[in-house]
């Protein structure tokens, strides 16, 4: 049976070898100037080195250009696209149509993956971006399993699904952490602290903790738990979903590597010996649970949830 | 910064006038609000149908009501747009063709959409509908605007994060109608990129289920070596991501000179009093500026008028630059408005000077009330005797929608409104 690609998020160039060893098929990297919510920051030199390292190990490299761009960066997109084509990146991940037009002008053969995080919610929209030039659509995290399988059944593009890690709940251009410090009169804290890691919002009513951070793209608020469906991959593998993503944002490199190993095992088992996967999947789930840091639990995201409106 | 724009103005009798007036676009949550918005001077209204629109909790229009709304608006030369700006899921696809055909058949001028599914379906089954890109797409640069122009869209609504200088650049580079928000509540996130409701209440924010989690209070902590350190002191207001409402009344001249084609007021959930007040103020500002831009002064009474229906603090958001903490609300939420809607004028008898008014909030003899409307200058007066429809004297107008009569000191017109200070 066809195996989905296992796509992961390295935190550094050095991390790529480790992830290759762990069984990853592809990596997504980039810098916050162009990409959203990456596990690591990769300068141009890093991207060039990462592509070499990954290609040596037979892995694909996708570079994130999925920020929401304002006029100030439009004119430099072409240069970055040309650089990525030059170093041999395997695809560009985009959400803003400005990137699509830039790629058409600058590097028309470059592959494109459409990823806005929240708006890939039906098969028609995926195919629409396919007709505009995307080879792949990255589905919204707020879809359930049935909707994902239905999209795959109608899709004319590759379909990528995040199977593990934190998901983004909210992105604002506003500097919300900095503003809160300013409001409190902690002027000295603003620049020193607002980019620090490990901050979270506590929601008393739900007893949830939502990681929050600021960067060049604004303020981001993340899901209270990590999605983990290592024990529920069967239907999607059978349906031929093209790529499974593990998002390692907010985690240590070691964690990302270990989780990658477990998903490698799960995918191989499920594709090669489904019965054995069914027997062993509880153990795989328990192994992930054992890796979780104390403040981060796992759940199944929206895969088995009904959403109303 | 105000830069005079030759492309929208002409010199007539030695005086510069704006010949390309922007459209004033108002929200209408139901048929009554639509009629009020149009009567008070909106050039166009946007409404939601029963499906595919983002305010699942608004009254929303049936196709029959849409038809009636279009007929009413057309009598004033006003247009009706329908929001169909959800990000659809597979299950929303069946029925879309019929819905869009019905909108076209009802005489709707255009639809406001975000999802390519709805854009392309409208082109295929209802080609007479204009297609406007919703702010849900968070369109923030000229090249993305260029893309949507090439896709054949008539108009784009920009992201709320786009400022005046950025609008100027977009207008210079791309020839497409631009719609921009001037007044009302704001998402503090990039629109379409927030799923807080999905996570917190299992309601899909991008299909109209938004429960406004961005207006709730949260506590900010930092995790450090396994310890949770509060980043607030006892007595500090909690962390908030709540944005103050937008109010760009003082920036309307800049908006007009930028050549923005449609100035949009947000608020399909708001009352008719709100719609009437806000529309009439912006109508006056736009008309006064366009008639004589070089001698225009904002009148403080217009600014105060907007305050009378505001239930939240306001701020310019991204229009003049990056919003600092004063654009956000900490520790406070909505407040009571300073004025409340007291009655809707149904008629006026010039012989007796007696007005017929439908009660919308309690009032009684001795109360000071203010009248406003498109045909009159605001005036206040103290109410004297009140009678019911049969001429019986009343000690108060205490029943909702009760029809009463009393003397007024100046002529009134149907749809004029009466408000009372709280």
From TrEMBL, chain A:
InterPro entries membership: Peptidase_U32, RNA/ubiquinone_mod_enzymes, rSAM_sf
Superkingdom of origin organism: Bacteria
Name of the molecule in the record: Peptidase U32
Source organism (scientific name): Geobacillus thermocatenulatus
Lineage: Bacteria, Bacillati, Bacillota, Bacilli, Bacillales
UniProtKB/TrEMBL annotation, chain B:
Keyword Hydrolase: yes
Keywords, in A-Z order: Hydrolase, Protease
Keyword Protease (UniProt): yes
Biological process, per Gene Ontology: proteolysis
Record family assignment: Belongs to the peptidase U32 family.
PANTHER family tied to this protein: PEPTIDASE U32 FAMILY, TRNA HYDROXYLATION PROTEIN P
Native source species: Geobacillus thermocatenulatus
Name the UniProt record assigns to this protein: Protease
Any GO molecular function: peptidase activity
PROSITE patterns linked: PEPTIDASE_U32 (PS01276)
């Amino acid at each position: 049976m066809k195996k989905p690609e296992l796509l992961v998020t390295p935190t550094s160039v050095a991390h790529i070898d480790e992830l290759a060893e762990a069984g990853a098929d592809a990596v997504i990297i980039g810098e916050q100037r162009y990409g959203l919510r990456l596990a690591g920051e990769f300068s141009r030199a890093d991207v060039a080195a990462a592509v070499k390292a990954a290609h040596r190990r037979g892995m694909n490299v996708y570079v994130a250009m999925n920020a929401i761009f304002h006029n100030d960066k439009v004119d430099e997109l072409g240069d970055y696209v040309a650089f990525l084509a030059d170093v041999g990146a395997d695809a560009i991940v985009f959400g803003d149509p400005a990137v699509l037009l830039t790629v058409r002008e600058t590097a028309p053969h470059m592959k494109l993956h459409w990823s806005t995080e929240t708006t890939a919610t039906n098969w028609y929209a995926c195919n629409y971006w396919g007709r505009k030039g995307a080879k792949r659509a990255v589905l919204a995290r707020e879809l359930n399993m049935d909707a994902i399988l239905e999209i795959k059944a109608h899709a004319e593009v590759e379909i990528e699904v995040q199977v593990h890690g934190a998901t983004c709940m909210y992105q604002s251009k506003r500097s919300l952490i900095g503003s809160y410090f300013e409001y409190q009169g902690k002027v000295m804290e603003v620049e020193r602290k607002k980019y620090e890691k490990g901050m979270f919002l506590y929601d008393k009513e739900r007893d949830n903790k939502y990681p929050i951070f600021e960067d060049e793209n604004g303020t981001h608020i993340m899901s209270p738990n990590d999605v983990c469906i290592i024990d529920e991959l069967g239907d999607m593998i059978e349906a031929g979903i093209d790529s499974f993503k593990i998002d390692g944002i907010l985690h240590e490199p070691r964690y990302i590597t270990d989780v990658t190993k477990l998903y490698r095992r799960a995918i191989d088992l499920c594709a090669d010996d489904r019965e054995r996967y069914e027997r062993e999947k509880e153990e795989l789930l328990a192994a992930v649970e054992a890796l979780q840091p104390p403040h981060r639990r796992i759940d199944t995201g929206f895969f088995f949830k009904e959403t109303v409106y | 910064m105000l830069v005079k724009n030759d492309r929208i103005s002409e010199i007539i009798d030695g005086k510069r006038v704006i010949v390309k007036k922007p459209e004033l676009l108002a929200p209408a949550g139901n048929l009554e609000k639509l009629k009020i918005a149009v009567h008070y001077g909106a050039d166009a209204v946007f409404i939601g149908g029963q499906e595919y629109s983002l305010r699942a909790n608004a009254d929303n229009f049936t196709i029959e009501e849409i038809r009636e709304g279009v007929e009413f608006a057309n009598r004033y030369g006003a247009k009706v747009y329908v929001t169909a700006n959800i990000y659809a899921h597979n299950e929303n696809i069946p029925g879309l063709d019929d819905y869009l055909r019905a909108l076209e058949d009802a005489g709707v001028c255009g639809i406001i959409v975000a999802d390519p599914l709805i854009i392309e379906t409208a082109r295929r089954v209802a080609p007479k509908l204009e297609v406007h890109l919703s702010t849900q797409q968070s369109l923030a640069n000229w090249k993305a605007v260029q893309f949507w122009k090439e896709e054949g869209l008539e108009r784009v609504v920009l992201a709320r994060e786009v400022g005046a200088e950025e609008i100027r650049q977009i207008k210079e580079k791309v020839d497409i109608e631009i719609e921009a928000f001037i007044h009302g509540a704001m998402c503090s996130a990039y629109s379409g990129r927030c799923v807080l409701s999905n996570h917190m209440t299992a309601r899909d924010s991008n299909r109209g289920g938004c429960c406004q989690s961005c207006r709730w209070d949260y506590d900010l902590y930092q995790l450090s070596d396994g310890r949770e350190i509060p980043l607030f002191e006892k007595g500090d207001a909690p962390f908030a991501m709540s944005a103050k409402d937008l109010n760009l009344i003082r920036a309307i001249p800049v908006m007009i000179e930028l050549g923005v084609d449609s100035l949009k007021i947000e608020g399909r959930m708001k009352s008719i009093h709100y719609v009437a007040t806000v529309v009439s103020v912006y109508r006056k500002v736009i008309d006064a500026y366009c008639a004589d831009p070089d001698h225009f002064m904002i009148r403080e009474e217009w600014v105060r008028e907007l305050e009378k229906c505001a239930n939240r603090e306001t701020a310019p958001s991204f229009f003049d630059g990056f919003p600092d903490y004063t654009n956000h609300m900490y520790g406070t939420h909505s407040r009571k408005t300073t004025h409340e809607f007291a009655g809707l004028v149904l008629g006026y008898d010039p012989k007796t000077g007696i007005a017929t008014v439908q009660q919308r909030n309690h009032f009684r003899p001795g109360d000071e009330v203010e009248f406003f409307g498109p045909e009159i200058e605001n005036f206040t007066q103290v109410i004297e005797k009140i009678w019911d429809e049969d001429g019986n004297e009343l000690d108060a107008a205490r029943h909702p929608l009760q029809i009463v009569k009393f003397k007024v000191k100046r002529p009134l017109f149907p749809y004029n409104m009466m408000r009372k200070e709280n």
